[in-house]
Amino acid sequence: MTNPGLTWMAPRVAAALLVAGLSACEPQTPVNTAPPEAITAPPPAANPQPDVNAKPVERAAPPMIKPVALGEFDPGNPVATAVTGKLSLEDTLIKGENGASFTTERVALVSGGDQYSAGATYAQAMIVDASQPIELRRVLEETPPTQSPANALCGGNRTGFIALAKVEDATGETLKLIGLKGTDLPAASANGVELCASTQYFPIAGGGDAEGKKVAKR
Fold first, then answer.
1. CA-CA distance, 48 to 46, in Å (whole number)?
2. First CA to last CA across the chain, in angstroms?
3. Are strands 93-96 and 87-89 parallel, antiparallel or unpaired?
4. Structure confidence by residue, pLDDT tens digits, 151-169
């Protein structure tokens, strides 16, 4: 005797088996196991070559610092007599008759009102106006006086800088010179810059840039 339920399910089972068989027969897409193609970077751009016909760029030279005074000077106070005696002021060399000498380079042109150290101005140290031009030189090499080395401009310390001012008034021309110790460039923010000595000199008649000018009276 045939079971009616089994007869009803037979067509469904047959259809399912047919679908499964068809799926198994369909071709499968193969898996790509080959390594990826290498990516080649584009070649770098060619370096531009300078134009040999182009004119060079001309740059302005830095401004030259003009000396405030040059020539020969007699000492104008006891300190000047002790540290140098008669003074010869050249472009880079300052020489004393007593053997003292300073090889220098100009580093700045400042004003009397400028500070060489916090709260200390050139005007105070040199007794000049706040607007007075001051030539500042760095001392590269120093030789003390031959007979009295202790009379060096900064005594037992190395002179770091020399400041120069040429003052003209009704009595004539006076050269003011001070020595500063320390390695920092003198300024309000400088550390270790101190005044060593303050001197003054008078031009020798007919010597250097004093020629034709009135010499200050002693």
1. 6
2. 157
3. antiparallel
4. 999 999 999 999 999 999 8
